[in-house]
Amino acid sequence: MKSVNAPEFEIFRKNYSDLEIELSGSAGQPILVVKNRVQGYGCGGRQKHIDAETKLGVLSSSPEMEELDKISALGKFVLPMEKHVEKVDALSGSGKWKLNQGPIIIPNYEIINLGQEVGYTFGRNRDISASALTIETGKNVELYFRFHKSPSFEMGKSLEWLEEKLPEYLKERDMDLSYVEAMDLLNLGEKVPEDFRQRYDGEVYAQKINILQNLEKLGKREAQLQGKIGGIFASINDGIYQSNGAITVCENEDDARVISVGPRDNLRNIRNEIKRDLSRAIEDLGMHKNEMLLELQPGVKMNVPEYISGMWEKYKDN
Predict the structure, then answer these.
(1) Taking all residues of the chain, what is their mean pLDDT, rounded to a whole number?
(2) Based on the domain organization, do 132 and 12 belong to the same domain?
(3) What are phi and psi of 151, to 5 degrees?
(4) Rounded to a whole number, what is the distance in angstroms from the first to the last CA of the chain?
(5) Which of 24, 103, 222, 249 lies in the 20 to 30 Å Cα band around 206?
(6) What does each C-alpha distance from 257 to 34, 156, 245, 246, 262 come to in angstroms?
(7) Does residue 192 carry a pLDDT above 60?
(8) Of the residues 122, 137, 152, which one is the last residue of a structural domain?
């Protein structure tokens, strides 16, 4: 392999040979590629975090493997497929899956990272680490999303060991439900295991209810602030504004605007929060288009898509 020293080449040779065996006859199989790296955040990059780039697709054919003595470190290892999904998880939170056309491409020099770890020390004695490069195929793709958040996975146990030994409660607790979203984007939702789908649907429903409850709470707070602001401007007629025993001169709109600065700022913040909730409801959860009826009280039902769409029209330009 060009541009790689002898010890590194031996590692590369083993990793490349293992991949050749693993991926032979792999056409039609799902394949997962996860790259982890330590990233510095904040002033001087002192705050460390392991960012993960995850890609998932289905192989349209087995990859073409090159002869080892002809491979260049600057070359590319191509995983052929029509499309794949990818996301990046960083310190700011988990990213959204996005759909890309074409193959997954891994620079040849990164193959040496298979079996290697990246990490950093948190505090005085806690080491944080993760595999620098993970490639899983077939059944192991599902097992990765089922187990990779579990403590035993972090301790280096194999996916097969986890599947056999971990108690049922741990499987359910630590499943990475973003697997469902990835498979849906790839139009492979029918292949998602039932327990994944049930957990995912339950969490999505809970998120929707939480948004609706928060919108109701924010709406009440908005009405209170509007009433307070209206009362301040109405006090111009009396020339004074009274609140909690305090009396303030309020003879014109300039006085009212000064007195109402706090409530108007709070009102602006409330409306911004409403808009953020509505954006999440529409962009992340599709609540403006997916059929959903809620019974608010006996005989009174809410058509959720109509409610969300109406609220968005009201607040989108605020």
Answers:
(1) 86
(2) yes
(3) -60, -35
(4) 60
(5) 222
(6) 55, 63, 20, 17, 10
(7) yes
(8) 137
Could you tell me if 122 and 15 are in contact, meaning their C-beta atoms sit under 8 angstroms apart? no
Confidence of residue 234 (pLDDT cuts 50, 70, 90): very high
- Boundary residue ending a domain (137, 167, 195): 137
* Number of domains making up the chain: 2
**Tokens 């996860």 -> residue:** 34
Q: Kindly report the CA angle at 154 between 21 and 134, in degrees rounded to 5?
A: 30
- Asked whether residue 156 is assigned to any structural domain, the reply reads no
Assigned domain for 165 exists: no
User: Which domain covers residue 221, as residue numbers?
Assistant: 203-315
The tens digit of pLDDT for each residue in 131-160 reads: 899 999 999 999 899 887 765 554 455 656
pLDDT at 224 (0 to 100): 96
Q: Is 116 within the bounds of a domain?
A: yes
Q: Copy the structure tokens of residue 111.
A: 């193959």
Please determine, for residue 219, whether its predicted confidence score (pLDDT) is greater than 70: yes
87 within some domain: yes
Residue 305's SS3 state is helix
| Alpha-carbon distances, residue 167 vs 147, 164, 174, 191, 198 (angstroms) | 12, 9, 11, 23, 19
Which tokens hold the place of 162?
Answer: 């986890």
Crossing angle of helices 261-283 and 304-315, in 10° steps, is 130
Least confident span in 216-220, 262-266, 288-292, 304-308:
288-292
Structure tokens given for 48: 């460390």
Question: Cα-flanking dihedrals φ and ψ of residue 295, to 5°?
Answer: -90, 105
pLDDT reading at 169 higher than 50: no
Closest CA to 65 of 136, 17, 104, 109: 17
